[in-house]
Design goal:
Chain lengths: 121, 461
């Protein structure tokens, strides 16, 4: 019996960050429809909140878009006040999608062929 | 069939923010002209420029204070000069929010540009109503904000108004429509409303056109801009990335493509990323025109660099306009210095400690660029949890804000002092001091914000 493999999320999905005020939204879009259910099962709002814990989100909401094989995470309070107030060079939090996309996920070997790119060395 | 069967409306977008590429419009206009020449009779095309982000308008207001004839998009001339004559000659009408804090002055600039180009004066409409700095409306805002407006130094107050005055201006024959603060997607909804004769309560049609506008409003971002990730998301010809063109049908459904002869790509993946960009609840994307709903939306590639968007719905528009009030927000001080070679990270961390001790009274943000910077937090929790990893090329950055300029200025002087008083081998100091803007938001009932347009009267010359 073969075991699940652990891969970074960016091999299974892509996404983009947007911002409004102190609120960030990060889309996560499956590269293949067959990968979508495992993303829904594993990328829970709780896990995403943990990924951003050093930015102290006050709330993480997840919206599912099954027809796009996508989900939209809305993170409140993660931008240190947002574009007017933050001291970060990246006041918009534009880079945050890549923090999320680096999260490890488990993929069954039967779906490994749908992953993008190579396993990191 | 009793409905007039309109050919698809073409809307190209040539700017996605203030300061976007000024050579973007050329290929979009070339493509629109070619499509009109090949297309069915009665086909029409528009060109939109989206140039206003949340704070752009406040910055424009500051420029207008310094110069009464300024306050509109600084690149207006550079964006329009290459394409204005061709657009007007081929019946391509132009809609933009490049009026920013002074749409009337922008309109005068365009009239002047037309004279310089030796073309017939275009009919230019100026959309009005977004600027809420008149005393009666400021009083309304004071009631909304209460003591939050006490003691602030107001820079700008604007409502995000919608597509109706744009459509009305086009119905009245405007060839160029200059807006200030309108909701970004309304730049596309206005032309569609006017062209197809939609009522302002045809929610599904308005919802679909709104999402078409949403896909267009960031320019290249739907055509492979802001998408490339080598080995994972490769984009051909990124240096010549094209700008988008939407084909919108009489029910508001759209196909997104891009200007011919350009780089980039339009795929289901690029369209999905842009569709969700800056969206919160997908079932409730709020605009002044409609509440758009993409919960059941689908995308489908229908040709090379052509993707159809389907399944968008619309619900009744909000009863209120969103209003942003910008005010002066003190000073932002930033300073940087680099350390390289053996123990570079240790010396950069020591420099940060020195600055923390010297700059008491300032809440200092510290970045170790090369080790941990933009993924960190202002309070420094992430950095505190990160041990020295022995990196050999680190740029230390510190930042702080203060209401008083003199306090904020201390930061730059202390970073400069690291040259002689800090750890060994620091180099390349840069310091900046920038005035900040802060924003308050509220909702105002639509009735409190009358909107409309005026045609620019050409001054006799």
């Amino acid at each position: 019996m073969s075991h699940d493999i652990t891969v970074p999320l960016y091999r299974a999905a892509h996404g983009r960050t947007g911002d409004k005020g102190d609120r960030s939204n990060i889309s996560v879009i499956a590269w293949h429809p067959s990968l979508y259910p495992l993303l829904v099962a594993q990328l829970t709002p709780e896990r995403v909140a943990a990924c951003f814990r050093h930015r102290s989100p006050s709330q993480v909401q997840r919206f599912l878009l099954p027809k796009l094989q996508a989900m939209n995470f809305v993170l409140d309070g993660v931008l240190d006040g947002g574009v007017n107030d933050a001291l970060n060079l990246d006041t918009h939090g534009k880079a945050l999608s890549f923090l999320l996309l680096d999260m490890p996920i488990e993929v069954p070997p039967s779906l490994a062929r749908e992953l993008v790119g190579q396993a990191p060395p | 069939m009793n409905r007039i069967d309109h050919p698809a409306l073409l809307i190209g977008c040539a700017a996605g923010f203030s300061g976007d590429r000024t050579d973007a419009a050329g290929p979009v206009v070339d493509t629109l002209i070619a499509r009109l020449a090949q297309g069915p009779a009665g086909q029409r095309a528009f060109l939109i420029f989206e140039t206003l982000a949340e704070r752009t308008l406040a910055l424009a207001q500051l420029r207008r204070r310094a110069d009464p004839e300024a306050g509109y998009e600084p690149l207006l001339d550079a964006m329009l000069r290459p394409v204005l004559a061709r657009c007007l000659a081929h019946g391509i009408r132009i809609v933009s929010n490049f009026g920013a804090a002074h749409p009337r002055a922008a309109a005068r600039h365009i009239a002047r540009l037309a004279r310089e180009l030796g073309i017939a004066p275009p009919r230019i409409a100026v959309v009005q109503g977004d600027d809420l700095s008149a005393p009666a409306q400021l009083a309304l805002l004071r009631r909304e904000f209460g003591d939050r407006m006490d003691g602030i130094r107001l820079v700008s107050a604007n409502a995000y108004i919608g597509a109706e005055p744009i459509a009305a201006a086009l119905d009245a024959g405007a060839q160029v429509v200059v807006c200030g603060r309108v909701a970004d997607p309304s730049l596309a909804v206005g032309p569609a409303m006017s062209h197809f004769g939609w009522r302002s309560d045809e929610w599904d049609k308005l919802g679909r056109a709104t999402m078409a506008g949403h896909l267009l409003e960031c320019g290249a971002q739907v055509c492979g801009g802001y998408f490339a990730d080598p080995g994972y998301k490769d984009v051909p010809g990124l240096a010549q990335v094209g700008f988008p063109i939407a084909e919108i049908d009489a029910d508001g459904r759209c196909v997104i493509g891009k200007a011919g002869g350009t780089g980039g790509l339009v795929t289901e993946a690029t369209v999905k990323e842009q569709l969700l960009y800056e969206v919160h609840d997908p079932a409730g994307y709020l605009t002044p025109d409609v509440v758009a709903d993409i919960a059941e939306a689908e995308v489908e590639a229908v040709g090379p660099d052509r993707v159809a968007l389907r399944g968008v719905r619309g619900h009744a528009r909000p009863s209120h306009y969103k209003v942003n009030v910008c005010h002066e927000g003190g000073w932002l001080a930033e300073g940087e210095i680099s350390y390289a070679g053996p123990r570079a990270e240790a010396r950069a961390r020591l420099a940060a400690d020195v600055l923390r001790q010297r700059l008491d009274g300032l809440a200092l943000r510290v970045d170790l660029i090369g080790a941990l910077s933009i993924l960190g937090d202002d309070a420094g929790h992430a950095l505190a949890a990160t041990a020295d990893s022995g990196l050999r090329d680190i740029r230390l950055r510190v930042a702080a804000t203060h209401a008083e300029r003199a306090q904020a200025e201390r930061l730059g002087r202390e970073v400069m002092a690291l040259y002689t008083c800090g750890p060994a081998g620091g180099g390349g100091v840069r310091t900046t001091l920038t005035p900040r803007l802060n924003t308050l938001s509220c909702l105002l009932p639509r009735e409190a914000v009358p909107v409309g347009f005026e045609m620019l009267e050409e001054p006799a010359q």
